From TrEMBL, chain A:
Keywords: Cell membrane, Membrane, Transmembrane, Transmembrane helix. InterPro entries: CstA, CstA_N. It comes from Janibacter alittae. This is Carbon starvation protein A. The chain crosses the membrane at residues 6-26, 62-80, 86-109, 130-155, 161-179, 186-203, 223-244, 251-269, 289-314, 326-350, 389-410, 431-450, 456-481, 488-507, 519-537. Residues 2-347, 363-505 form the CstA N-terminal domain. It is found in: Cell membrane. Residues 548-568 are annotated as: Disordered. Residues 558-568 have a biased composition (Basic and acidic residues). It comes from the Bacteria. Pfam families: CstA. Belongs to the peptide transporter carbon starvation (CstA) (TC 2.A.114) family.
Automatic annotation (TrEMBL), chain B:
This is Cory-CC-star protein. It comes from the Bacteria. It comes from Janibacter alittae.
């Protein structure tokens, strides 16, 4: 099959989902009210609660949720063939991710902009809130550990990306100075920043940098992982204006440019898919498609992390409730398109089936490296860029996504450690909390050996934790709908499917870890399994209570009917 | 508003928006430190610059209540100034 046709079908399906299904959800299920007074108006404080233009808010939301995960997941999952990954990404985006993200926004907006954690206490019960804290801690831990390994492997497989990766930090530092110290015009700074970043890519392409194979008895990827954690620790303590803010900004611009380049190249190159639609010749040791596909691709199909962003920050800035359709659902569409791009790059970007099979020689082997190689080849064919330069562009893009998520992840983990300290009546300083956050993630990364393989081994565990989080969010939405006596089928069907696949995957992995005597992952798997069963029991109980008419949201139903100017 | 002005405003919001809370928190910490310096003499801490900071006291008194509640003190720690009963 031709990749252009697949791209056109995929994009058309996802856009049709936005036009038709999101309209149905907005009008019939969530019943978004244009006159509902959103928290951004009701609680305006100029800090958290700020009514924001829907296009700008979509930009914030999309760049916050799009990290390395929509690239890593599909790039690993195409080992079962491109068709299962394609169907899961497109149908998942249409019927699950968009519904979930829009629903999380709606649920939070109807509760004064509260986060999913706070909502779980109200709708699922106090135990639900404790569960939420456990899940969020594990999720951040896994993001930090897994992304460090992804970046280290990319820097080794694409040494031309080393200069632009670290150079991007210098560019971000200069942008921060230019804006705050010299008060330059933002548009001009943005153009200079993007030009500087791409110049670094050109320089990096000429001067690849590799570490010696062993440094002080450690393999090169272990050294990169340690350097990355030291960087993330420092970055998370520095004032945000100095590094994180300009870095996130330039990365956001890079995301739009990268997506444009990738889809433009696919259209111009018109490559055929060399990988099989269904891969019957999977390498030995590859787990079965069902259930692992549905947890390997989390971001890009449905992801609990989106609910955290939607209810954490986006809901507080929503100008009108009806904007939830564009910000939430279309945000998921953006991420679905990124995942679709990754599927095409990793299956159409190779010359022959044998080439593709040699890259996908074992489960977890293809991954982002396949995205960089395959995507590089498509960009070479489409835009005429030299293959090595194209690979450097894509590797830098993937590294920057992962790195910005990682330094934010370490920062958030620091807050979690400090909050846990407060709960135990201990004051944990900024430095100590950062060291604890980094040390725990490092321990997990090196838990399965000095080569850092623990970081990637936990990737499917990241998927399951993330899906669990999504299940919790869908449970809250279902309870809210039941209390309003509305149909819950569009929410409950995906929830049942998701939780069934997650629990199934956890059992499959439990067996694998036991056979491999991998006790660290076995314990983590058990914790997540207990949490999953807990989510199911609590959600079913809460839904039953709601169905029997307990705790009807009278106050909110009334508020919904009151328009902004006070008339009913 | 021209399209360029609108684009520019959107770009600015895209840059500043995600970090609004972090800036507000940093500003608050800075203000609290400043408040502590200005009130140091009243709190019994010798301050060589009190000749200058004394001039700021009337301006700062308005914010004392907010400050001491944020510091975890139910009542005003200043003997000569009680903002809440």
């Amino acid at each position: 099959m031709n990749s252009v046709l697949l791209a056109v079908i995929g994009v058309a399906m996802i856009l049709a989902g936005y036009v038709l299904y999101s309209k149905y959800l907005a009008n019939r299920i969530y019943r978004l009210e244009p006159n509902f007074t959103t928290p951004s108006h009701e609680l305006t404080d100029g800090v958290d609660y700020v009514p924001t233009n829907k296009y700008v808010l979509w930009g914030h939301h999309f760049t916050s949720v799009a990290g390395a995960a929509p690239i890593v997941g599909p790039a690993v999952a195409v080992i079962w063939g491109w068709l299962p990954a394609f169907l899961w990404v497109t149908l998942g985006t249409i019927f699950m991710a968009g519904m979930h993200d829009m629903g999380a926004l709606w649920a939070s907006v109807r509760n004064k902009g509260k986060s999913i954690g706070a909502l779980s206490e109200r709708y699922i019960g106090a135990r639900g809130a404790n569960l939420f804290l456990v899940v969020i801690f594990l999720l951040l831990l896994m993001v930090n550990a897994a992304f460090a390994v992804v970046i280290a492997n990319l820097l080794i497989s694409t040494p031309t990306a080393v200069i632009p990766t670290w150079g991007a930090i210098v560019v971000a530092l200069l942008i921060g100075q230019a804006i705050y110290r010299f008060t330059w015009n933002l548009a001009a700074v943005s153009v200079i920043g993007v030009v500087a970043l791409y110049t670094l890519i050109l320089i990096g392409n000429q001067f690849p940098i590799s570490l010696p194979e062993t440094v002080m008895g450690m393999p090169d990827n272990a050294v990169w992982i340690i350097i990355l954690f030291v960087y993330a620790g420092i970055a998370s303590i520095l004032p945000v204006w100095l590094l994180l803010q300009p870095r996130d900004y330039i990365n956001g611009l890079q995301l739009f440019i990268g997506l444009g380049l990738l889809y433009g190249s696919v259209l111009l190159a018109g490559r055929d898919m060399v990988a099989p639609a269904f891969n019957s010749n999977v390498p030995e040791g590859t787990p079965s498609l069902i259930p692992l596909l549905f947890v390997t691709i989390a971001c890009g199909a449905i992801s609990g992390f989106h609910g955290m962003v939607a209810s954490g920050t986006s809901s507080k800035q929503l100008d009108k409730e009806t904007d939830a359709r564009f910000v939430g659902y279309f945000g998921a569409v953006g991420e679905g398109l990124l995942a679709l791009g990754a599927i095409i790059a990793t299956t159409a970007g190779f010359r022959t089936l044998a080439d593709w099979e040699s890259v996908y020689s074992a489960f977890n082997e293809g991954g982002v490296t396949a995205f960089v190689d395959g995507g590089g080849s498509i960009m070479n064919a489409g835009l005429g860029l030299p293959t090595s330069l194209s690979a450097t562009v894509l590797a830098t893009m993937a590294v920057l996504f992962a790195a910005t998520t990682m330094d934010t992840g370490v920062r958030l983990q620091r807050f979690v450690v400090q909050e846990a300290g407060d709960a135990m009546r201990m004051t944990v300083g900024k430095g100590t909390a950062t060291i604890i956050a980094v040390a725990v993630a490092l321990g997990l990364t090196f838990g399965a050996g000095l080569d850092g393989s623990g970081g990637l081994l936990i990737w499917p565990l990241f998927g399951t934790t993330n899906q669990l989080m999504a299940g919790l969010t869908l449970g809250i939405i279902a309870v809210m709908l039941l209390r309003r006596k509305r149909t819950i089928v569009p929410v409950v069907l995906p929830m049942v499917f998701l939780l069934a696949m997650t629990v199934y995957a956890l059992f499959v992995q439990l067996g694998t870890f036991y056979r491999d005597s991998n006790w660290l992952l076995l314990v983590l798997d058990l914790i997540i399994l207990v949490a999953a069963v807990w989510v199911i029991v609590e959600s079913v109980g809460a839904m039953n209570r709601a169905r029997q008419g307990e705790g009807a949201d009278d106050e909110e139903v009334e508020r919904a009917s009151i328009s902004r100017d006070g008339s009913s | 508003m021209t399209w360029f002005a609108r684009f520019s405003a959107g770009l600015k919001e895209f840059y500043y928006g995600p970090y609004r809370q972090a800036f507000a928190r940093a500003k608050q910490e800075e203000d609290d430190l400043f408040m502590m310096l200005v009130l140091s003499e009243a709190l019994g801490v010798p301050n060589p610059a009190s000749y200058y900071t004394a001039e700021l006291l009337p301006v700062m008194y308005d914010r004392v209540h907010e400050w001491h509640t944020r510091m975890g003190l139910d009542r005003s720690p200043l003997d000569q100034f009680s903002c809440c009963c």
